[in-house]
Specification:
By secondary structure, the chain is an all-alpha fold. Helix content is 37%, strand content 2%. The chain contains seven helices and two strands; from the N terminus they run ααββααααα. The chain has a two-stranded antiparallel sheet.
Length: 164
């Protein structure tokens, strides 16, 4: 045991192929190839059902999450969930349920955290340097957003119910 109370195991044989571990930098597997093989097995087609159940367990209601209207589960980033699980874009999702374009499908707490990161790692400088390329409000080159059925927010789900 080390000072923190955790037991550190040094194996003499690889956990994957039982070959002897010869290099000092490896503790569990004999090579990167064996380690990657074991870790990639989790992504095999037979394991996708397990991953789905595990994801569903984590997707329970919390204040800092948004609800997916399709499956009723709660996520920090509903847009990512929609693309990965329901195989549609966030725009198609908004059109299907008549949600306004400005209606966010990312949790507020997550937006705040990401906003703080932008200032810490100086990514905001990219926005400032690109400002010369922005369109003004009356610029004819700016593409008009017309014809989208849910953009005014007059139809669809009550915002507080799903996007409190």
């Amino acid at each position: 045991m080390n000072k923190s109370g955790f037991k550190v195991e040094f194996r003499k044989t690889c956990l994957n192929c039982s070959a002897p571990i010869t290099e000092k930098r490896f503790r569990t597997y004999c090579s990167k190839k064996c380690r990657n093989h074991v870790h990639n097995m989790k992504a095999m087609p037979g394991n996708t059902e397990w991953q789905r159940k595990n994801r569903a367990k984590k997707a329970t209601y919390r204040k800092d999450k948004k609800k997916c209207i399709i499956c009723g589960l709660w996520y920090v980033q509903v847009g990512s969930h929609i693309v990965q699980v329901h195989k549609m874009t966030a725009r198609e999702y908004r059109e299907m349920y008549d949600l306004p374009v400005k209606c966010g499908i990312t949790a507020e707490e997550y937006k705040k955290r990401k906003g703080e990161v932008v200032f810490k790692n100086k990514t905001v400088e990219n926005l400032k340097s690109g400002k010369k390329n922005w369109y003004s409000k009356d610029d004819p080159r700016a593409k008009k957003n017309t014809g989208w059925k849910g953009r005014n927010g007059s139809k669809g789900y009550v915002a507080n119910e799903y996007y409190g």
